[in-house]
Amino acid sequence: MGRAAQVRRDEIVRLATTTGLASVEELSAQLGVTASTIRRDLAHLKAAGLLARTYGGAMAVVTHPEASLRQRIGEAFEAKRAIAAWAAAQIRPGETVLLDSGSTTGALAHELRHAVDLTVATTGLNALQELAGATGVHVECLGGTLRHVSQGFIGPLAEAALTRMTFDRVFLGADGVTAEEGICEASLQQTRFKELMMDRARHIYVLVHATKLGRRPFHAWARMPETWTLVTDATATEESLKPFTEKGVETIVVTPHPLE
User: Fold this and answer.
1) Amino acid 69: pLDDT
2) What pLDDT score does 77 carry?
3) CB-based contact 95:118 (threshold 8 Å)
4) CA–CA separation, 74 vs 143, rounded Å?
5) Please, what sign has the CA dihedral across residues 183, 189, 195, 200?
6) Start and end of every HTH deoR-type domain (predicted)?
7) What domains are there in the chain, each with its CATH number?
8) What end-to-end distance do the CA atoms of the chain give, in Å?
9) Contact between 210 and 137 (Cβ < 8 Å)
10) What does 144-180 look like in DSSP terms, one character per residue?
11) Which end of the chain is more exposed for a tag (fewer CB within 10 A), N or C?
């Protein structure tokens, strides 16, 4: 599948998730392709479990179960790689940073493997695996209760570990993020933990692929502080970014580069 098709399908998922029902004709006009192309896209997305088809259109599966880390790692790989590279460039030698669990923060850990004089604390197993051989990085595992679906630690032990440290920067993932309500996750335990992570850091970054913008897949929310930075990829539309910029959120759009 070409990049144009992937970008278009990501946008269909975002539109269906944020606005609900969308007709084939509306999608065809908005995305500038034929109705038959849209129908093929919808069939592909249905087979992937990302959308439920209705007569003449598409509707987001709002009750779709939380995707596993294994599923997420292969999604929008180039975009996540570019977001991670930008995030890594913000980190300075001597800093102490905190990485959330997730596929994009795991990609950030990969970018940090050759860092020098850096302390990284994380709740993600994939980040720990990426940094296991990074001799220039001091690694702290927050521990706690393992969520098998996300391969990340949460719970009282992880929360207690957070109280013993402060961080120059925290990098968070999200199942969805809105300007009004903040970060959306599958459980209140996750959102409480993200709020605690933000409380311990001077600079806060939310790293998300454009399909997560304006998305509300679950009913648990982490409220955002007054100042934070949203980092997403170039498939984000002006419409999806507008609520964040209007609210004064620093918004960074990163252009993915093809794999060499």
Assistant:
1) 46
2) 76
3) yes
4) 26
5) negative
6) 5-60
7) 3-60 (1.10.10.10), 69-254 (3.40.50.1360)
8) 18
9) no
10) -EEETTTTEEESHHHHHHHTT--EEEEEE--SEEETT
11) C
Instruction: Answer whether 77's CB lies under 8 Å from 256's CB.
Output: no
Beta strands 201-207; 229-233: pairing state: parallel
Around Cβ 119, how many Cβ atoms within 10 Å?
Answer: 17
Six token digits for residue 19: 């606005």
Q: Are strands 182-185 and 176-178 parallel, antiparallel or unpaired?
A: antiparallel
Which class for 6: exposed (0-12), middle (13-18), buried (19 or more C-beta within 10 A)?
middle
Two structure tokens written together for 43: 């069939």
Q: What does the pLDDT read at residue 258? A: 57
pLDDT in tens, the chain (260 residues): 567 887 888 778 766 655 554 578 888 888 889 989 988 888 877 766 566 655 445 455 544 455 544 545 446 678 899 999 999 999 999 999 999 999 999 999 999 999 999 999 999 999 999 999 999 999 999 999 998 888 899 999 999 999 999 999 999 999 999 999 999 998 899 999 999 999 999 999 999 999 999 998 888 999 999 999 999 999 999 999 999 999 999 999 999 765 44
Q: Do 120 and 112 meet the contact criterion of CB atoms below 8 Å apart?
A: yes
Q: Which two tokens stand for residue 12?
A: 């269909």
Contacts of 229 (CB under 8 A, 6+ apart): 203, 204, 205, 206, 249, 250, 251, 252
Give pLDDT, residue 73. 45
CA distance 166 to 96: 8
The model carries a pTM of 0.74
The answer to whether the CB of 132 falls within 8 A of the CB of 109 is no
Tell me how far apart the alpha carbons of residues 164 and 152 are, in angstroms, rounded to a whole number: 19
